[in-house]
Amino acid sequence: MIHQLRIYEIFxxxxxxxxxxxxxxxRRIMERxxxxxxxxxxxxxxxxxxxxxxxxxxxxxxxxxxxxxxxxDAEWAEIKRATAARHGDLVGxxxxxxxxxxxxxxxxxxxAP
Length: 113
Prior knowledge:
Elements: E1 2-10, H1 15-32, E2 36-45, E3 48-57, H2 60-71, H3 74-87, E4 91-99
Antiparallel strand pairs: 1-3, 1-4, 2-3
């Protein structure tokens, strides 16, 4: 099992539109392609608003395949096009990290919870 951390810069001017798109469309489409959301947060860092979310995957190959399917999804492409036309860019910088669990992490294999 691996985890993927995603951090999206979002803009105060259209933050509500971003959250509506993610809540009402992105998450549903991503789940259709096998994405498993662990948790989602909103954060601020250095005056920047961010959506931070954690995904869980069985392995890196499955993760890469699911992202490829999402990029090819016609419904998602149309939703992104339409919301950008109406609200402008909804996402700035994106950070993407695959997290490798250390053996002393709580609940790690071979370790008591």
